[in-house]
Amino acid sequence: MNWNVEYLPEAVKDLEKMNNSQKLLVFKAINRVRANPLPINEGGYGKPLGNKNGKNLAGLLKIKLLNAGIRVVYKIVRTETRMVIIVIGARKDDIVYKLAEKRMHRNLS
């Protein structure tokens, strides 16, 4: 069963900034993960985030596209079997985690 995927408006803007090959990689990764977005410790594909450089990201998960240098941060809503994409961005620094923390509190609190 595939989970429903929703994007925060900010995450849509993140995608719009990417070139077509990057977008394709991101969509493929999200489509693969949506089959089982649960955390790895529950048999899913998601890698749990906790405290990352002083940012409280408990309850969020990530998808790493190592070769493309991209991270996708998402949250699952278990009661509705949906996953919400919070941020999509470069792996080179921790800005995705800063954005995820801000967006989570602003949009998902």
Q: For the report, how would you describe the main beta sheet? A: 5 strands, mixed
Gyration radius (Cα, Å) is 13 Å
Helix content: 25-40%
- How do the helices and strands follow one another from N- to C-terminus? EHHEEEEEEH
Strand content: 25-35%
Give an overview of the whole structure.
This protein is an alpha+beta fold and 109 residues long. It has one domain (4-107): RelE-like (YaeB-like fold), CATH 3.30.2310. It has three helices and seven strands, in the order E-H-H-E-E-E-E-E-E-H. The chain has helices spanning 9-16, 20-33, 95-107, and strands at 4-7, 47-48, 51-52, 55-56, 60-65, 70-77, 82-90. The strands form two sheets. The protein has a five-stranded mixed sheet with strand order 1-7-6-5-2. Strands 3-4 form a two-stranded antiparallel ribbon. Strand 6 and strand 7 form a beta hairpin. It is globular, with a radius of gyration of 13 Å.
Short description:
The chain has 109 residues and is an alpha+beta fold. It contains three helices and seven strands.
Task: Label this structure with key terms.
single chain, 109 residues, alpha+beta, YaeB-like fold, two-stranded antiparallel sheet, 3 helices, 7 strands
Please specify the SSE layout and strand pairing.
Layout: E1 4-7, H1 9-16, H2 20-33, E2 47-48, E3 51-52, E4 55-56, E5 60-65, E6 70-77, E7 82-90, H3 95-107
Parallel strand pairs: 1-7
Antiparallel strand pairs: 2-5, 3-4, 5-6, 6-7
